[in-house]
Amino acid sequence: MPANLTPQYLAAEQRFKEATTFQEKIEALEEMMATIPKHKGTEKMRADLRRRMAKLNAEKDKKYGTSKASAIFTVQKEGAGQVVLAGAPNTGKSSLLARLTHATPDIAAYPFTTRLPQPGMMPYENIQIQLVDLPPVATEFYKPWMGSILRQADLVLLVVDLGSDDLLDEVEGVIETLAGSKIRLLGQKEDVDPDAPPGSAFCRTILLANKADRETAADNLEILREFYQARYEIIPVSARSGVGLALLPQTIFARLDVVRVHTKAPGKKVDFAAPPYVMKNGSTVLDVARAVHRDFIHTLKYARVWSSPHSTAGAKYDGQMVERTYKLEDGDIVELHA
């Protein structure tokens, strides 16, 4: 008997293939289970889904049921995205974290002051973005747990020191050290390398040129651009003077490739004081319904959408009824009807 799989099931299956965390995979499997047709032709498929969910839950419990000692080397994702600061010793990563967030990391003029991951929350308009400062990436100090944090990051800020005479060597040192752990720092126009070793991680990266207020910064910035501008987006900043930091949160948000969506109850006004739902770019009405409450994937009848005033869509919506598969834009307001 043919399975006759629904579009909702196939969409959930695609999300499962693209998922990177245990929770994302489990949620995709749950939706696959909820939307798969229930007849004799799908009995084996449903049994397989149950086995996969059980296996993932067991692996999740095993991973996060770790000791207190290992817990200090992990950082759970929070906010609209997790952005990791990586760089050679004394590039000013901790100073940037302190300037951009309310975190209070140890800051000193000697190498390896940072020994543990240090998170902080950076405000951007109506959301918070998590920044994580790592110890310096250097062969004499690099630890496997640093690679684990980088692998789960949504974006990497490769911090370099524009005041350093060894600028290019330091950048290459970081790139090569991470490559030795099968971590590739991808530039803005690079694609995942299909010939990379199995188990490789590909991290979208911005090259953050810190200490732009130093005397030699202008010359070093030109050198940096000559070697890396074709690959990375290069942003000159200064944690000390604040140069370039005002627009950095906006740039980071754009590179996270997410959208913010407000929801409202039928017949009521939207509460803009409440934090929006942050969804991956390309998410649909059904995705935000699932984020509001898992049962909505079964009970949702239809939705109405109000477009953001800044919407770039060809047609702007003002409370129109839309399909469950309607792709949301940043700033959309969604009214769910169950």
Question: Can you describe this structure?
Answer:
With 338 residues, the protein is α/β, with parallel strands linked by helices. 34% of the residues lie in helices and 21% in strands. It has helices spanning 7-18, 22-35, 43-64, 68-71, 93-100, 144-152, 167-179, 217-228, 248-256, 285-292, 296-299; strands at residues 82-87, 118-124, 127-133, 155-161, 183-186, 201-210, 233-236, 258-264, 277-280, 302-306, 318-322, 333-337. The strands form two sheets. Strands 1, 2, 3, 4, 5, 6 and 7 form a seven-stranded mixed beta sheet that branches. A hairpin with a 2-residue loop joins strand 2 (118-124) and strand 3 (127-133). The protein is globular, with a radius of gyration of 23 Å. It starts with 6 loop residues before the first helix and ends with a strand.
